[in-house]
Amino acid sequence: MGKGAVVGTVVVVCAAAAAAVVVSRRRRRRLEAEDERKRKAAAVIEEVEQRFSTPTALLRGIADAMVEEMERGLRADPHAPLKMVISYVDNLPTGDEHGLFYALDLGGTNFRVIRVQLGGREKRVVKQQYEEVSIPPHLMVGTSTELFDFIAAELEKFVRTEGKDFHLPEGRQRELGFTFSFPVHQTSISSGTLIKWTKGFSINGTVGEDVVAELSRAMERQGLDMKVTALVNDTVGTLAGGRYVDNDVVAPVILGTGTNAAYVEHVNAIPKWNGLLPRSGNMVINMEWGNFRSDNLPHSEYDTALDFESLNPGEQVYEKMISGMYLGEIVRRILLKLAHDASLFGDVVPPKLEQLFILRTPDMSAMHHDTSHDLKHLGAKLKDILGVPDTSLEARYITLHVCDLVAERGARLAAAGIYGILKKLGKDKVPSDGSQKQRTVIAMDGGLYEHYTKFSACLEATLAGLLGEEAASSVVVKLANDGSGMGAVLLAASHSQYAEAE
User: With contact defined as beta carbons under 8 Å apart, do 232 and 180 qualify?
Assistant: First the structure.
């Protein structure tokens, strides 16, 4: 081999070696960058796990705080977060109700219009029909007149479809139960002034006004001859509907877009009651528990930011941790932190991930319930909603874990609230006198509980754990689907203007 050839070979070898060194360095830098990314992702997840932790001792403390705040609200303490609204419902349905009655159930982003022909104790519900209507987003932040005119117009259309299976005696006015699931200062069974809007509503001109009068004027403008005979909160309606089919129902809980609870209280345990004592000795209390606050609640930076940027900062603190309006948004905020700090979805943060409330709780539920080995359904959701064309398996599993953490915290906190109600009623323990355990039913309503099965299963398991095996054996948590709508119908019937004549 000539000298030139040798030199050439040496140059080639050196060049190859240099290139290999460069490639090795690049590979090492890539590996180091990947390790750093994974370390940052692990740090974010670890902090979320710590902040969202709900050990049993913490849940018991939350339940005790719930009882304490219930008692403050019943005393009319002006600083109590739970208003413990007196519903003026002292008698629940008996099964004797009969006739044609309507209900309007305004509970969130949708409302339902319902008609029911009741046949008394023998025939019970003869026939029922309902329609669900979505509220256009602009009406949720518009004026009171625009919202109620839209609702009344839809109700009038529904009344026009009344068939011959429904019978209204001649000369009688149609009667309506109005389920209004927002905080109201109730002044009678058929009147109440709005305290504040929740669940994303922010409407001018309604706070401090009688919502029944607002609806009645809107119905008049539509030429609809109908009288509101019962103003009912969604939880009170669920209680009435639940008691109609199961006499052991003691409390309803709504877990949907928003959340609330109610229960039956002895009048002598309501210091702020100053009216005539009802013959039953009982009164249904609408807790408005979405506004519950306690230092025991496991707050995180995500909750603080969500609350600050909400339409009602500082209010509905409990609701923002457990209800369907907010769970998906909490997940989005955690994923955004992971995208910024740990490049979870690549070097560029997906622009859609920056959009408030783009990730809805039903989408979170669909991702959380993905059982495919490669989480392909979850990946498809991320692509469709956030515009991420290709996610790594690691990113999908991290997303699944985030859904799990947020749902579990929400479900366990909801269970602690229910446990608090049972403690207030003295139904959290086995009778110490050896008497037979009485069956206790919690009636659940709302899409979050009904459709998010991992959430509802976690709630039920947590409540059973808090009660203990023996006490839990007599407590039943069951779905009362459309309980609030049917309850409004039943309360309209039991408070009918024609009831005395019959």
Answer: yes
Extract the residue ranges of the chain whose pLDDT is less than 50. none
Strand arrangement, sheet containing 440-445? 85-86, 282-286, 259-266, 249-255, 440-445, 475-479
Q: Is the dihedral of CA 326, 342, 350, 31 positive or negative?
A: negative
The DSSP line for 320-357 is HHHSTTTHHHHHHHHHHHHHHHH-TT-SS--GGGGSTT
Burial class (CB in 10 A: 0-12, 13-18, 19+), 128: middle
Please spell the DSSP secondary structure of 253-287, one letter per residue.
EEESSSEEEEEEEEGGG-TT--SPPPTTSEEEEE-
What's the rounded Cα separation, in Å, for the pair 347 and 339? Answer: 8
The single-letter DSSP state of residue 210 is: B
Q: Which of 319, 257, 325 is nearest to 111 (CA)?
A: 257
pLDDT of amino acid 434: 64
Q: What is d(CA 30, CA 34) in angstroms, rounded to the nearest whole number?
A: 6
- By C-alpha distance, which of 302, 291, 357 is closest to 50? 302
Helix (H) or strand (E) holding 168: none
- The CB-side HSE value for 368 (13 A sphere, CA atoms) comes to 24
Residue from 128, 116, 248 nearest 177 by CA: 116
User: What is the structure's pLDDT at 430?
Assistant: 83
- Helix or strand holding residue 377 (H, E): helix 376-386
**Which residues are tagged catalytic?**
199, 234
Per-residue pLDDT at 500: 59
Q: Decide: 440 and 427 in contact? Cβ < 8 Å.
A: yes
Among 140, 131, 133, 99, which Cα is nearest to 116's?
A: 99
Place of tokens 């979850």: 378
Who's near 129: CB < 8 A, 6+ residues apart? 114, 115
Percent of the chain with pLDDT over 70: 93
In angstroms, rounded to a whole number, what is the distance separating the alpha carbons of residues 136 and 153?
14
Tally the residues of the chain. Answer: 502
The pLDDT assigned to 20 comes to: 58
At 108, is the secondary structure helix, strand, or coil?
Answer: coil
The CA R_g of the chain, rounded to the nearest whole Å, is 28
